[in-house]
């Protein structure tokens, strides 16, 4: 797809539903008794993979894509049934890791697989704690990757074992996987992470009726909850909003309003970093949306300064680091991003992909073991971008194209369908 420099961004954009929250609404709705009604559901390919998997597990789900509303007819904690075929999670790491925790507590055998990117992403990180819980889960792929097979040695009759897992990485997918398996355990299950990752599972499962306590970076769940269907209005995804925040900040004379953005403190690191960089962003209409705070953001073009980012803030902006790298190129001075080695095991190796593509555009950027160093202020030139079908890479370079000197091509640009199907038209509507 072709991209070229554009004038200022003006107007209003309403951000589609949060990917993490949309996945969880379907999963928890399936395990609850009664009906769960979800509004502002994200119609991205990843969330549709979750719907498809739960339909295969015997759950009736109606998805009205014209109104972004989904109705899930849950069957309770023990209501899933054996699928007739392998479950295909597509490109979705969240689906694979969270569903594995749920499936480990079922009696039936089931196999899971996904696309070529999923088959390279580490699953040992969930197999290890699940095996400690006495789950029967094995990797059939290379280096502990998908395909995965659960309960292949025969029907499970006993409960899982409650554990206290000390996760080596801050990851909401690992934490959620273990907590979900903990619902099928014989005693309480805790997860402690090095820093607190996004807490949507803890918030939403509590709303459904589970008993979860959180203290610092430790979450604990009691087994065998009685989950009851809920009404969930999904806030807009701050990870999707991040592209427009960046566009507004770096394209001269821009001023835009980004409506309905989830600003949960475990997700709002991008706002804190932008403020540190000198960004003019104000929050309006802040409301509580069922435990998940939401706001409208007013973003104005700003002269940005480089920053140093590392430590506990990293899990709160992990998916925004590619677009932060673009901001850093437009800023004056040096930006150092560290403690972000997790970027290497996302939909692509996001350190390598950002450094390779931005270097070819003329940026001064160096990869490090756990992040990157960027000396901002260099003129960016157009080139052909290899997105490696990673949605966050494609969207980041679509924003970079707004300030690049020459035309650009982004390969496999249609991969934005994973998390933001209307991204390019929403961007076009803002550009003057
Ligand atoms: C997610 C958690 C994060 C994030 C991913 C969605 C989730 O992954 O990168 O896009 O919904 O739990 P990790 O838990 O692997 O950090």
Task: Walk me through this protein's architecture.
The protein is α/β, with parallel strands linked by helices and 432 residues long. The protein folds into two domains: 2-16 and 235-430, Enolpyruvate transferase domain (UDP-n-acetylglucosamine1-carboxyvinyl-transferase, Chain), CATH 3.65.10; 19-233, UDP-n-acetylglucosamine1-carboxyvinyl-transferase, Chain, CATH 3.65.10. It is 30% helix and 25% strand. The chain contains twelve helices and 23 strands. The protein has helices at residues 19-31, 45-56, 93-104, 124-132, 172-182, 200-208, 238-250, 269-277, 321-330, 350-361, 391-400, 423-430; strands at residues 2-3, 10-14, 33-39, 60-64, 69-75, 87-88, 110-113, 137-139, 148-150, 164-166, 189-192, 212-215, 218-221, 231-233, 255-262, 280-289, 292-300, 308-309, 334-337, 364-368, 371-375, 384-386, 408-411. The chain has a four-stranded mixed beta sheet with strand order 2-15-17-16. Strands 4-5-3-14 form a four-stranded mixed beta sheet, with helices on one face. A hairpin with a 2-residue loop joins strand 20 and strand 21. Helix 7 (238-250) packs parallel to helix 9 (321-330) and helix 7 (238-250) packs parallel to helix 11. It is globular. The model has no long low-confidence stretch (mean pLDDT 97). Bound molecules: shikimate-3-phosphate. Shikimate-3-phosphate binds at residues 20, 94, 171-173, 176, 197-198, 318-319, 342. Residues 20, 94, 171-173, 176, 197-198, 318-319, 342 line the site of shikimate-3-phosphate.
């Amino acid at each position: 797809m072709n991209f070229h420099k554009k004038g200022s961004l003006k107007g209003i954009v309403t951000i589609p539903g949060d990917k993490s929250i949309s996945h969880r609404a379907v999963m928890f709705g399936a395990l609850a008794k009664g009906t769960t009604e979800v509004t502002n559901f994200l119609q991205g390919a990843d969330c549709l993979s979750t719907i498809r998997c739960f339909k295969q597990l015997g759950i009736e789900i109606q998805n009205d894509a014209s109104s972004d509303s989904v109705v899930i007819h849950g069957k309770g904690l023990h209501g899933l049934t054996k699928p007739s075929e392998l479950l295909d999670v597509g490109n979705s790491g969240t689906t694979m890791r969270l569903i594995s925790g749920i499936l480990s507590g079922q009696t039936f055998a089931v196999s899971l697989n996904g696309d070529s990117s999923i088959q390279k992403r580490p699953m040992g990180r969930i197999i290890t704690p699940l095996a400690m819980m006495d789950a029967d889960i094995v990797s059939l792929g290379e280096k502990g990757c998908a395909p995965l097979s659960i309960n292949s040695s025969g029907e499970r009759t006993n409960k899982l074992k409650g554990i206290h897992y000390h996760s080596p990485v801050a990851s909401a997918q690992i934490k959620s996987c273990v907590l979900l398996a903990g619902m099928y355990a014989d005693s309480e299950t805790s997860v402690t992470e090095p820093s607190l990752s996004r807490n949507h599972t803890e918030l939403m499962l509590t709303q459904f009726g589970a008993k979860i306590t959180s203290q610092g970076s430790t979450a604990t769940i009691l087994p065998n909850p009685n989950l009851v269907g809920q009404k969930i209005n999904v806030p807009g995804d701050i990870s999707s909003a991040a592209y427009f925040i960046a566009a507004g900040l770096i394209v001269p004379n821009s001023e835009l309003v980004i409506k309905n953005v989830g600003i949960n403190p475990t997700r709002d690191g991008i706002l804190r970093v932008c403020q540190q960089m000198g960004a003019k962003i104000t929050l309006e209409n802040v409301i509580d949306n069922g435990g998940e705070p939401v706001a409208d953001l007013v973003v104005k073009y700003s002269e940005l300064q480089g920053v140093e980012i590392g430590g506990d803030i990293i899990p709160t902006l992990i998916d925004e680091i590619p677009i932060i790298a673009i901001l850093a190129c437009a800023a004056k001075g040096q930006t150092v991003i560290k403690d972000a080695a997790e970027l290497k095991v996302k939909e692509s190796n996001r350190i390598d992909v950002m450094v390779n593509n931005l270097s070819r555009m003329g940026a001064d950027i160096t990869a490090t073991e756990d992040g990157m160093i960027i000396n901002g202020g260099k003129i960016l030139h157009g080139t052909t971008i290899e997105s490696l079908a990673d949605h966050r890479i494609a969207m980041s370079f679509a924003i970079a194209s707004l300030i690049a000197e020459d035309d650009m091509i982004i390969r496999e640009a249609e991969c934005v369908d994973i998390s933001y199907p209307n991204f390019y038209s929403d961007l076009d509507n803002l550009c003057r």
